[in-house]
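User: Sequence recovery, please. Input:
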């Protein structure tokens, strides 16, 4: 799997993802584990809602940007930034009220192992909040490789719908709500909410013009074709 850059979405993308998740669960608690924290874009939005945050990622250069961002910030006292894989979490059992993975699970090679780790470190009744690419969105949102040539996102119309080809070419996975929910259940996590997010169009002039239409779709049954899935799962009490 390729690596992601969570802050690349732009301001509206960040707000839409956090807003969608917060409609289905409170993004508050005593301790938060943020998997795939990157440069801290999402962490800093959540810092006031938690007493302590563990922010982990495997991209060293992104973590260094995060540490530079925290230099001199009072928030640094309650954020611990670590280079750590989601499949090798070394926290004790029942450590966190909430675990987040925003545009991350599509990049994890052994997702089943990572989900078992999430289950283990959550307190009973704790929540796992994630967003990830939706397979029913007709455009590829990550890069893909054809005959040695790398193509940018949005140049693969309907590629996510051709599952064997997508698995062979794409930098990152995409999921259906049904398939990812089943995977969560196998790890002992119970999905309690599923939602969809349309593209934020932070950097597209054409996209800005059609935002009213896509925002309306996001509030309709057609949101099933949204760019991203948002899922809340719970570790049973």
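Assistant: Recovered sequence (237 residues):
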């Amino acid at each position: 799997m390729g690596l992601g850059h969570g802050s690349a979405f732009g301001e509206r993308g960040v707000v839409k993802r956090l807003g969608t998740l917060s409609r289905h669960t409170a993004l508050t608690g005593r301790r938060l584990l943020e998997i795939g924290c990157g440069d801290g874009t999402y962490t800093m939005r959540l810092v006031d809602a938690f007493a302590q945050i563990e922010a982990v990622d495997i991209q060293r250069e992104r973590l260094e940007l995060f540490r530079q961002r925290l230099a001199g910030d009072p928030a640094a006292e309650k954020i611990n930034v670590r280079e750590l894989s989601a499949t090798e979490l070394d926290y004790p059992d029942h450590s966190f009220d909430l675990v987040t993975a925003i545009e991350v699970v599509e990049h994890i090679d052994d997702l089943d192992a990572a989900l078992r780790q999430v289950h283990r470190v959550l307190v009973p009744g704790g929540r796992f909040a994630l967003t990830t690419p939706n397979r029913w969105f007709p455009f590829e949102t990550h890069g893909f490789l054809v005959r040695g040539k790398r193509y940018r996102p949005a140049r693969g119309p309907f590629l996510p719908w051709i599952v064997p080809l997508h698995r062979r070419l794409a930098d990152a996975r995409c999921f259906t709500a049904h398939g990812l929910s089943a995977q969560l259940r196998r790890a002992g996590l119970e999905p309690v909410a599923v939602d969809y997010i349309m593209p934020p169009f932070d950097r597209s002039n054409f996209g800005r013009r059609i935002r009213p239409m896509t925002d309306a779709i996001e509030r309709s049954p057609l949101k099933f074709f949204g760019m991203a899935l948002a899922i809340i799962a719970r570790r049973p009490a």
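The two ends are 33 Å apart (CA to CA).
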